[in-house]
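TASK: fixed-backbone design
INPUT:
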């Protein structure tokens, strides 16, 4: 579950030992989420603004402090828009963990060939 602006969305996530992306501004681990999974957290104009190519690395869209994070995979590198959510709750049949002020990076790319729509950073529980 991701909570932002008093709205919450749920998605299926993979704890990805290969995701070691960190927020270059805070050093926090980054959770990468497919854009469609977080659409309901924003109004349409703000959601579309997440993908505008800004010349500055940090920008404000309304009340959202947006930043762009460098992300490198085996085959490419890019900048992903990112924001700080109020909280996330990671849960399965064995655990329930609440994390305050997590960094969420947004991608329009598919996150694999399975049903996962988010990748949880390997350091999120540290």
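OUTPUT:
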């Amino acid at each position: 579950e991701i909570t932002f602006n008093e709205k919450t969305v749920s998605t299926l996530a993979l704890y990805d030992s290969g995701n070691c992306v960190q927020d270059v501004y805070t050093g926090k681990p980054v959770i990468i989420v497919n854009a469609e999974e977080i659409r309901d957290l924003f109004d349409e104009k703000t959601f579309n603004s997440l993908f505008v190519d800004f010349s500055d690395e940090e920008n404000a869209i309304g009340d959202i402090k947006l930043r762009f994070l460098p992300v490198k995979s085996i085959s490419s590198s890019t900048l992903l828009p990112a924001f700080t959510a109020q909280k996330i709750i990671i849960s399965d049949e064995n655990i329930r963990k609440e994390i305050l002020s997590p960094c969420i990076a947004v991608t329009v790319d598919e996150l694999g060939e399975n049903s996962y729509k988010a990748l949880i950073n390997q350091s999120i529980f540290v």
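COMMENT: The helical segments are 35-38, 44-49.
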